Amino acid sequence: MKKLINKPENVLKEQLEGFQAAHADHVNVHFDPTFITRSSKTRKGKVALISGGGSGHEPMHGGFVGAGMLDAACPGEIFTSPTPDQMHAAAKACDSGAGVLNIVKNYTGDVMNFEMAADLAREEDIKVQNIVIDDDIAVKDSLYTAGRRGVGTTVLAEKICGGAAEDGYTLEKLSDLCRKVNRYGRSMGMALTSCITPENGTPSFDIGDDEIEIGIGIHGEPGMSREKIKPADEITERMTTEILDETPYKRTLKEWNFDEDDWVEVEVEDAPFKKGDSFIVFVNSMGGTPVSELYAVYRKVAEVLDGRGMKIARSLVGPYITSLEMQGCSITLLKADEEILKYWDAPADAPAFKQ
Amino acid sequence: MKKLINKPENVLKEQLEGFQAAHADHVNVHFDPTFITRSSKTRKGKVALISGGGSGHEPMHGGFVGAGMLDAACPGEIFTSPTPDQMHAAAKACDSGAGVLNIVKNYTGDVMNFEMAADLAREEDIKVQNIVIDDDIAVKDSLYTAGRRGVGTTVLAEKICGGAAEDGYTLEKLSDLCRKVNRYGRSMGMALTSCITPENGTPSFDIGDDEIEIGIGIHGEPGMSREKIKPADEITERMTTEILDETPYKRTLKEWNFDEDDWVEVEVEDAPFKKGDSFIVFVNSMGGTPVSELYAVYRKVAEVLDGRGMKIARSLVGPYITSLEMQGCSITLLKADEEILKYWDAPADAPAFKQ
Fold it and tell me: What is the ipTM of this complex?
């Protein structure tokens, strides 16, 4: 296993110590339980925005803690959900009285633990809402998930909701915005190579020297199909077309109902993508693919959108939600309206995202 | 060869088309000859800052074109120097009458072509200075270079000199600052894996499954030693110690002498690094190593500096000067003084660097 690590069991701790040392001006890393907060306290009256999930996807989420983005992030062990006590400690550290919005990627452990953490916080009179992101159109139900997986739209939601939270959105209004971002965003990933978790020391899956996996998950979960490698244009056109032609997906997601004082199932349906729509286009590296290749992909995404009479309003290209050293990319299209663009453009100053 | 590319001969063109499409708000990409400028013209009286070099090191240099950093970048083919006509066209497009500073990494082709381009520009009454960066302590004289290679300090020089140029530095004063940054900066790299250039399609060098190369160059040129893989702490301590203990290096570098109206050899000597010094610490990914591993490296660099009674003033962690998909990292230590920190902290808004 070729990695810049020491003992596998210390990888997360040491990486967080380095993160703290490099970004002491932006963040505080807390241990036992482990969570990352901004170095300054949440402003009185501002809703606290928190996210978290398994590690191995850096810079997400810790790199997005900072002004205009998250108030806190809870990193689990590699590819493992964080625990409720981490999320609960983060909520207590960040709540300024205006409540907490947890942005939760749709993986079974994350969803369950963020629900338990919300219940714990409510017992201490902290108002909490959880909004689930499930934007990965590649598969429904997989190794880690019931329903679709949460991927690239999460990064965009953390930026957009972060901007709105700074602007004074109430917990209700911020939850509405986060729901909309999830309904407006769709993603798909692909892998050229596997990744290796330090604990295992061997590739998470086998893939031939001439093969790619379309629809890969961010933990190396199987995707839609194993194929022979093709030119970037063909791969990109295929993925972009799948995203654009996806039938708007109907499902129920669990949220807290403040009137009923209970968890309820809420019906959610993706917004349709149609001619004339504008998008934030996000081309993401899985970790091992250099940014130069992402631009070749971006070029073809732009061409496909143009051919459909669709516009690009903003773009993001780089490694933001990764799978350790996996080579590959993901494409996220987020339909943009005035509110989304306003908060996309709002200032942000986090270690891994500045606007 | 597993890459997100189409035909190898179109890689650079397509990547630049994608870069243009993604960052039209920041940059204009020109073809025939190929160079990248800011989307707005150089302000009257501001010295134009230009760099360039072979492609494959993205985001350097194109990603650093923008307010507070470069006015233009000249990308060559992959791992191949750009040509004098590219650099000349960039100088003509950017000169506002205050002259041009070319930041040149010390590779034989780059140095020669930037000199020819400066001569061409002078024939058209554009005032040009070239400052060479040669900060890689690993080897003297190598496959592409006479003397030391130019690596990570280049990124820092582009940021710092970019800030000073915006602040109204004359060409002479800006050249002095750039010389100082070169004298104050030292780097070393290491590789876990090779990279593959699209034209060749096979690894640039062979390396065993249990081997690393210490002192690697950014084109995969051989370094100081081939070793068995070790814990990140050991590798990092070794590299940091080599950088700190390097005997200040004396050499001559070619510059333009405006009084003599000719190229002259100038004696240059690295500044010593000593107890009490403050540094900008830059831990860079070679492209395929995820940011999580860089933080483990950063942590140990900080520990070594602390043990020597040295301080970290600022830090930069991420993929900034890469070698395609090579796995590995480089460490750059730049001794910081008030002037360097002032312009490090100055605003910047380029596609790959915001401050």
Answer: 0.97
